[in-house]
């Protein structure tokens, strides 16, 4: 796939994200909670929950923590109640932002998000103001680049199980599919013996905004500030260094 590397755009903002282990646990726990609350507690029928559990296992979260969080979401045990809220806005230079937050106090979180946009020269928008720039996708990162595999065989498997695109960058092969194809494609890749190093449900930009100089620095600072907020789960943006 020629052109922009969508995966590099995702990894660009993940490079600094969740440096502390405790913060990782907190954010992944919230993600599991939201997934179970929205789609039920069975990961076999809830792709969002399946992806969140895989993420939890990747950071060595104890199974007891995972199960307890799911039970909280289903109301089987007590605990804080969270809701997923998506904020949209624009940073300096017309850069789009999509921010997924899990919060037990939407007024507090909205105030924080609005403050950060204003602090770094951006603005919080209304629902629908920026999400049209992004597409929901499932992404799978395979161990190694395309040179180790029969590319035609992999492409055939991808297409037969609902996938759309394949990208090779920095020695990694990344497959993209609609989010509803997450479970069947994951099963097909596993059955075929491919080693999956990462799997995520993401929002990919359909257009990119090249920025440089002060505008780039402002967006880098805004992105970092969002990532440091405890209520923020994911930040998606469409800027790239010019």
SSE diagram, text form:
Layout: H1 6-14, H2 21-39, H3 47-58, H4 63-73, E1 83-91, E2 95-103, H5 106-119, E3 123-124, E4 134-142, H6 151-160, E5 165-169, E6 172-178, H7 182-191, E7 196-205, E8 209-211, H8 213-228, E9 232-237, E10 239-241
Describe the 3D structure.
With 242 residues, this protein is α+β, with helices and mostly antiparallel strands. The chain has two domains: 1-134 and 206-242, Alpha-Beta Plaits; 135-205, YebC, transcriptional regulation domain (Alpha-Beta Plaits), CATH 3.30.70. The chain has helices at 6-14, 21-39, 47-58, 63-73, 106-119, 151-160, 182-191, 213-228; strands spanning 83-91, 95-103, 123-124, 134-142, 165-169, 172-178, 196-205, 209-211, 232-237, 239-241. The strands form three sheets. The protein has a four-stranded antiparallel β-sheet with strand order 3-1-2-9. Strand 1 (83-91) and strand 2 form a beta hairpin. The mean pLDDT is 87. Residues 82-239 form the TACO1/YebC-like second and third domain. This is Probable transcriptional regulatory protein BSOLF_0698. Keywords: Cytoplasm, DNA-binding, Transcription, Transcription regulation.
Indicate the percent of residues in helices: 40-55%
Number of domains: 2
Flag low-confidence runs.
none
Order of helices and strands: HHHHEEHEEHEEHEEHEE
Q: What's the total helix number?
A: 8
Which secondary-structure class do the elements indicate? alpha+beta
CATH homologous superfamily identity of the largest domain: YebC, transcriptional regulation domain
CATH-scheme architecture of the largest domain: 2-Layer Sandwich
Q: Tally the beta strands.
A: 10
Outline, from the CA principal axes? globular
Write down the overall mean pLDDT. 87
Main sheet record: 4 strands, antiparallel
Distance between the termini: 20 Å
What is the topology, as strand order, of the major beta sheet? 3-1-2-9
Over the alpha carbons, how many angstroms does the gyration radius reach?
18 Å
Which fold name fills CATH's third level, the topology of the largest domain?
Answer: Alpha-Beta Plaits
| CATH class category name of the largest domain | Alpha Beta
- Kindly estimate the percentage of residues that lie in beta strands according to DSSP: 25-35%
């Amino acid at each position: 796939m020629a052109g922009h590397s969508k995966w590099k755009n995702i990894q660009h903002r993940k490079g600094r994200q969740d440096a502390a282990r405790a913060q990782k646990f907190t954010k992944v726990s919230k993600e599991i909670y939201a997934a179970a609350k929205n789609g039920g507690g069975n990961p076999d029928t809830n792709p969002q929950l399946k992806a969140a559990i895989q993420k939890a296992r990747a950071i060595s979260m104890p199974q007891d923590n995972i199960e307890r969080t799911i039970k909280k979401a289903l109301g089987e045990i007590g605990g804080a109640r969270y809701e997923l809220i998506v904020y949209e806005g624009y940073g300096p230079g017309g850069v789009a932002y999509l921010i997924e937050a899990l919060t037990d106090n939407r007024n507090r979180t909205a105030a924080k998000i609005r403050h950060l946009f204003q602090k770094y020269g951006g603005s919080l928008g209304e629902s629908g103001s920026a999400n049209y720039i992004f597409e929901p996708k499932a992404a799978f990162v395979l161990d190694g680049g395309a040179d180790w595999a029969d590319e035609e065989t992999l492409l055939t498997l991808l297409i037969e199980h609902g996938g759309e695109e394949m990208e090779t960058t920095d020695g990694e092969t990344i497959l993209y599919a609609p989010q509803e194809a997450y479970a069947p494609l994951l099963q097909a890749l596993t059955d075929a013996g491919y080693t999956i190093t990462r799997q995520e449900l993401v929002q990919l930009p359909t257009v990119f905004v090249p920025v440089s100089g002060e505008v780039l620095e402002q967006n880098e600072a805004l992105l970092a500030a969002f990532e440091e907020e405890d209520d923020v789960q994911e930040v998606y943006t469409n800027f790239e260094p010019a």
